[in-house]
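Hi P.,

Sorry for the delay on this. The queue was packed all week, but I finally got your sequence through. Input first:
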Amino acid sequence: MWSPYGRRVQIDSAIARHEMWELGERIVQRAGVLAGEDVLDVACGTGSAAIRAAQSGARVVGLDLTPPLFDATRREAAQASSDVRWVSGDTAALPFSDGSFDVVLSVFGAALAPRQRATARELARVLRRGGRLAMFNWAARGGPGELLSLLAAQTPEQAEPPLRWGNEAHVRRLFAGSGVRLSFSYEIARHPLRGAGALAEPLEHDAGVVGPLIALRRAAERRGSWPAVQADVAALCAAEGERADGHYLVVLGRKTVDVRTRSRYR
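Then the structure:
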């Protein structure tokens, strides 16, 4: 991925490498992040949202389950002259007290968590009353949706595939009773897979170091289908036009009620 600051930045995640930088700015604008607010970027990946929120003057924490990403995110943050605190943690058990943040953000990352209802509860729990939630979740239509469908087909034992986060009714069910009032819209990321022929190469590396991809590769190798997965990914990366577009669900929420929880961090 080419940094907006004119320097080539090496990213250790295949998906993160092709996440478009402007989506970080877009979600910060959707959430209305203000200077002085406490902001959490969940499953922050390359830190595109965390860095943009910090540039707005917010106090920002970026959380991810894959610590090797932090070397790249720290370089990116330094180039952006932004101050972000990077924390390793699980979206289904956030290491923060109830009501710690004014804003919680997720650019596609939280949707990859296997325990979806627990993740939704945690996102709501760490929000203060009146706090805002903003999530971008890939929908089934378009290149990223096809990619997620392809990967999910290799792990049929997975009960909660990531694309369910791209369904409005499902997201409403996840947050039911959480005290967060939701609204939804759909947007398009133009050609997020275009020119991503390099995606197949880091997929090979990441499938040996990133938890969800390790499980995917093991399942595919048991079936003898790992080479086919690689070929299908390469074909998706060569997609042109509308097929390469990424359609995603925008989830905006405001916490209107403090719901009693049993936080381990009180």
